[in-house]
Design brief:
303 residues, mainly beta, Trypsin Inhibitor V, Chain A, 4 domains, three-stranded antiparallel β-sheet, disordered N terminus, PASTA domain-containing protein
């Protein structure tokens, strides 16, 4: 029961007149009814702020009305004078006007808030957004619009919101041929995660042979795999025409430590005697350092 100290209060709010009962024993205002004001031709931003501050859920719709200034109220739903029900949604119809509209800066806002701010200005907004690279802290936030802030847009023309993906694009530098430490330092400095995969190769141990992600669109935080030589192979030198001793020296200089197999072939050319006629593996082939090498050496064959 309401005490004798209770008073009937009339609260004039931006949304209309509220008739309520105030209990001196509490701070509660019990709303009994409210009528929506006539907001025709008023500034949409101000009306929106007033209604939302009073706790109403407000939807904004852009109307192609050239006879009013852009960003002003054309009509409301429900209509002015309607008694509002509890939790009733109010729709504001906002005019586009007939002159170019300066695009407000909505960067940093949520997509929902940015849409509302643009519509309150009388600008139509595309339903689809466009993902753009951005720092991680801008992910999901508006980072721009298809018509830049400060420029003007023709009434009735749609604008698109650019939304941060939270991914900063990274251009992969050339690291093939570098030692793995230098390559890793370059890539981690760009925000990439580096993985290393070793592979048999005649390149010096620790040399980057290839990058598995070459040609891909990369962003900060992506993983990149470096294929690195384990230095376990040698490139076979050309032994043909060398003496057996010279052939062995060449192999040792290349890092070879395997077994040498010799065979002979006949010749009558004394200039070829003792020199290598054939070799296996052939020159240029990459082989294990401890693999066997075969050479065929010329020897004199007298009739």
């Amino acid at each position: 029961m309401i005490s004798l100290a209770s008073v009937i209060v009339v609260i004039l709010a931006g949304t209309g007149i509220y008739y309520g009962v105030h209990d001196n024993n509490s701070d509660t205002v019990v709303t009994a009814g409210a009528k929506l004001q006539n907001y025709h031709d008023q500034d949409a931003h101000s009306v929106y702020d007033s209604l939302t501050s009073d706790g109403y859920t407000v939807t904004v719709v852009v109307s192609d009305v050239p006879t009013q200034m852009h960003g002003t109220i054309v009509r409301t739903k429900p209509e002015a004078g309607t008694e509002l029900k509890k939790d009733e949604r109010i729709t504001l119809y906002v005019a586009t006007g007939n002159s170019p509209i300066e695009v407000p800066d909505v960067s940093g806002m949520s997509v929902s808030k940015a849409r509302t701010m643009l519509r309150l200005t009388g600008i139509r907004v595309d339903a689809d957004t466009v993902q753009k690279p951005s720092p991680h802290d801008k992910k999901g936030k508006v980072i721009g619009t298809s018509v830049p802030a400060g420029d003007t847009i023709t009434p009735g023309r749609n604008i698109q919101l650019y939304v941060g993906s939270g991914r900063v694009p990274v251009q992969l530098p050339a690291v093939v041929g570098e030692d793995v430490t230098t390559a890793k330092n370059k890539l981690t400095a760009l925000g990439l995660k580096v993985q290393v995969q070793t592979m048999k190769s005649a390149k010096p141990r620790g040399t980057v042979i290839s990058v598995q992600n070459a040609g891909e669109d990369l962003s900060e935080g992506d993983a990149v795999t470096l294929v690195v030589s384990d230095g376990s192979l040698i490139t076979m030198p050309n032994l043909v025409g060398d003496t057996s001793a010279s052939a062995v020296e060449k192999l040792r200089a290349a890092g070879w430590s395997g077994q040498l197999n010799r065979s002979h072939t006949n010749t009558l050319d004394i200039r070829r005697i003792g020199r290598v006629a054939k070799q296996y593996p052939v020159a240029g082939a990459e082989v294990d350092k401890d693999s066997a090498v075969s050479i065929t050496v010329y020897e004199l064959n007298l009739p």
